[in-house]
Amino acid sequence: MIPPPLKIPVKKELGEIMRKLKQKFDDVEIIPELSNMKDERFIFTALKDGKKILIKVSDEMSIHKELRMWLAIKEIVPTLEMTKIDDPSGFYSDFCENGDLQQFMEKDCHKEIIVYFFEQILKIILNLHTRNYYHRDLKPENFLVDDDKKLVLIDFEYVKYENSCGGNIGTRVYKSPEIGSGRYDCEKADIYAVGKILDFLLQCSGKTDKEINEFIEEIDMCNEDISKRPKLSDDTIRRLIVQLKEFLWIEHDEKENEIPKKPKYIFKSLKKSKPKKSKSKSKTKSKKSKSKSKKLILKSRTK
Hints:
single chain; alpha+beta; 2 domains; five-stranded antiparallel sheet
């Protein structure tokens, strides 16, 4: 049973948080780029029983809400097991060595993996939406890549169980333009964010910015007219994947759910090689030498 939401937030100083975490775990280190000092949301790595874990610490209300939503949707989408901790208020989960989607794409990006990850994202969001849940903060950093290269959804603090949202929620680059101007359609806002994630994935595809922008416009996921944004379904996903493969010039006969291998691209050396001696000249020289030898033989015979 999901516990009722709390109403009293509890704040902690960073130094005090570090001290208390070190009493519970080993090798506690903060991740500054993932932490928000202003909102007092902190992300740490640590060791528990020799195993690396990820810890999130925030005010008690936010942690309680995120755990409630995680309990509600953990059977719907792939996610990590979350274990609550008290004093400081937070939870911990397994650490993914591959990092999040943004980190992974920076070190291992090719056309086939773009399609592979995008299809996973579409299916995850379809599972959420068909059960009337909406994430509201979709971005590459909120998808972790596990050891099997499967995506894991995280960060459920802003998840809503109704398709009518308010407030200015989301990350600027991936936030739908209608957010912040009153009530908005949560489903359409999530679709916009997925389109922006695809835009991010395509940056390493070898396509120009113009080509990428034209393709994103073509599939309508980021259309400012929210009525034109597609509603996710199995058929919609199949159509989008076919369009993406055609855009990237990828064959459609790949096995479903198979992890794509990075293609071996061959790059020609740009070093200047030494000019080779032309065969024609050597041939002409040999012909001349043969003709000379013939003349000498004829002369000897006449004598």
